[in-house]
Amino acid sequence: MSEIDSVLKETRSFPPPAAFQARARLKSEAEYQALWRESIADPQGFWGRMAREIPWMQPFTQVLDWSNAPFARWFVGGRLNASAVCVDQHLARHGAKRAIVWEGEPGDTRTWTYAQLHAEVCRLANALKERGVKKGDRVAIYMPMVPELAAALLACARIGAAHSVVFGGFSAQSLKDRIEDGGCTAVITADGSWRRGKLLPLKSVVDEALASCKGVHTALVVKRAGCEVAWDARRDVWYHELVARQSATRAPEPMDSEDLLFLLYTSGSTGKPKGIMHTTGGYVLGAALSARYVFDLRDEDVYWCTADVGWVTGHSYVVYGPLANAATIVMYEGAPDAPHRGRFWELVQKHKVTILYTAPTAIRTFMRWGDEHVTKHDLSSLRLLGTVGEPINPAAWMWYRDTIGGGRCPIVDTWWQTETGSIAITPLPGVTATRPGSATRPFFGIDPVVLDKHGAEVPAGSGGLLALRKPWPSMLRGIWGDPERYRQTYWSKFPGYYFPGDGCRKDADGYYWIMGRVDDVIKVSGHRLATMEIESALVSHPDVAESAVVGRPDELSGEAVVAFVTLKPHAVTSDALKETLRAHVAKEIGSLARPAEVRWAAALPKTRSGKIMRRLLRDIAAGRETAQDTSTLEDFSVLATLRAAEDDE
Ligand code: WTA
């Protein structure tokens, strides 16, 4: 595990600022320790008590049924509705409070109070019902960052249909695969959106996806960009026409705690994305509780999570978590550099944002753009900063703290996954002394351990594989349509333990340092991609015989996609063909997967058993001398050629 052993040597430590701590929900190590210990020693008691803080329509009779592990049932017998937790429960006290403060890229703004959000969710729920969407159906959502997107998730939840959000950067093919795998019967989309001043078409992508996809009876289209769209009158309906004439009330469906709330597709070690399943009670509790404690939410906060709702961060920390806490959330449609590189900071100043949650790639980008875009804005409203999605390097952490946070805001570096549903390893801002680059310590109910590949706990300070020893409420319930893959992927490496796929080091003080993926998943700008998915996209091109895709470190995006490609005999290498292949991947998967670099290889280096030697390729892609023993290479000349190709460039 030499990669994991190359650990950070970081000794700076930042205790919570006194002014922050004085007002925080949790203020002391003793409070955290007492709650965390209870959550591990008596999960039934702890989670039972926490769960009673959210409104149930029917109380649960058992906290956890783990008898059929790894298939968990949390809050057995309980009934609730996620939209009622996020909206209805706040109407009496917070009906007039701002729920969503939205800004479009061109600068148009809209604000919905909790009362308005309630009306919108009810109307949309009624509209979906009118179109024949039923409890238990799945609805695909392919939308820009507009308030209707939050309403769409909640409206599905209200009628008991599961949503399956597909990030707007995915291609028609990816969208179609996800719609078909999930058996979605309706799609909610928009005509288009704005990105760096350019129109981003969405409806036309949906049209292409649906052209060969049976079973979708309705496409509900928000008019956002006002662009021309093709129309199939049997299937397509304008959101504003259908929704406006609906009643603004609709009773929330009482859902079983274990009813499916959503599917969210994510990449694993194989070519096929997995539909991660989250159910109602445990997920909503996990999102609500973590948002409250990790972001220390207070009534007057203006909270901005910059993630797109197409990713899990947007599900849990744009929509469900903050809204369950009656927070005021900011949503922004566009790019951080439109129309100028200070747009985020202008938004923070304008809306007096108090909590900002964003990704390390964004922070590194802002750093590179230069402080002048930041310092011309007043960021004094900020009191707490967060990061998520990939490891953050200490230099970016320090810049975030000093330049964005003015040295006064704690930083919560939150580790979690689509599968964990909510934040799992994280500082608590009024409690934890933070260290640049460490996600610090486990959240309630999370029982981490760092193991070697044989399952033995490694000594403090050594690198190893992260595992979680206990189930937790917002854990995934499975992979849609593939229970065996769920068991295999997450619960078989260390039987009885959940295996997230990350390398990790725990230091002598019990702090966790996440070192990145140990499987074939790469994180490009925080976006999760499977190298195998990109490989299958490449080999679907008629000129490609074989390909191997690896990540190489990148100063801005964390990792960048490098594709080694072996062409078929008829094909001729050229720069134009490299471009064609990069574009082909973008067409097949989406532009987020476009390789940064395509390299030709006469053949790929393989072990005698035929496995591609990925670590070797990673070393070559990164320009590192490889330490790997190459005596099992099938063809030594391949290595020489790859090296030579590198020298040529
Ligand atoms: C990585 C995103 C280091 C990790 C919420 C994990 C992180 C994967 C952090 C999940 C962090 C997430 N520090 N690495 N704070 N947060 N990761 O499913 O490799 O898109 O397994 O969920 O992101 O990615 P996903």
List the helices and strands and how they pair.
Layout (H helix, E strand, L loop, with lengths): L1 H4 L12 H6 L5 H13 L1 H9 L10 E4 L7 E4 L2 E2 L1 H5 L4 H4 L3 E6 L5 E5 H17 L7 E5 L4 H13 L2 E4 L6 H11 L3 E5 L1 E4 L2 E4 L1 H9 L6 E5 L13 E3 H6 L10 E2 L3 E7 L7 E6 H15 L7 E4 L6 H13 L3 E5 L10 H9 L3 E4 L1 H10 L2 H4 L8 E5 L5 H11 L6 E4 L33 E4 L11 E6 L9 E2 L3 H9 L10 E5 L5 E6 L3 E4 L2 E4 H9 L4 E11 L3 E10 L7 H14 L8 E4 L13 H9 L13 H13 L1
Parallel strand pairs: 4-17, 6-7, 6-8, 7-14, 8-11, 11-12, 16-17, 16-18, 18-19, 19-20, 29-30
Antiparallel strand pairs: 1-2, 3-13, 4-5, 9-10, 14-15, 15-23, 21-22, 22-24, 24-25, 26-27, 28-29
Bound molecules: 5'-O-[(S)-ethoxy(hydroxy)phosphoryl]adenosine.
Return Rg in Å.
24 Å
The major pleated sheet works out as: 8 strands, mixed
Number of distinct beta strands = 30
> Which CATH architecture of one domain would you pick?
2-Layer Sandwich
Bound molecules: 5'-O-[(S)-ethoxy(hydroxy)phosphoryl]adenosine
* CATH homolog superfamily of one domain: ANL, C-terminal domain
CATH class of one domain: Alpha Beta
Q: Whole-number average pLDDT?
A: 94
Could you give the order of strands across the largest sheet? 12-11-8-6-7-14-15-23
> Could you list the spans in which at least 5 consecutive residues all have pLDDT below 50?
1-7
Structural class: alpha/beta
Principal-axis shape equals: globular
Q: Can you describe what's shown?
A:
By secondary structure, this protein is of the alpha/beta class. The protein has a domain at 521-648: ANL, C-terminal domain (GMP Synthetase, Chain A, domain 3). Helix content is 33%, strand content 22%. It is built from 22 helices and 30 strands. Strands 12-11-8-6-7-14-15-23 form an eight-stranded mixed beta sheet, with helices on both faces. Strands 5-4-17-16-18-19-20 form a seven-stranded mixed beta sheet, with helices on both faces. A four-stranded antiparallel beta sheet has the order 21-22-24-25, with no helix packed on it. Strand 1 (62-65) and strand 2 (73-76) form a beta hairpin. Helix 7 (114-130) packs across helix 8 and helix 12 packs across helix 13 (312-324). The model is unreliable at 1-7 (pLDDT under 50). 5'-O-[(S)-ethoxy(hydroxy)phosphoryl]adenosine is lined by residues 266, 311-313, 388-391, 413-418, 439, 500-502, 514, 516-517, 523, 528.
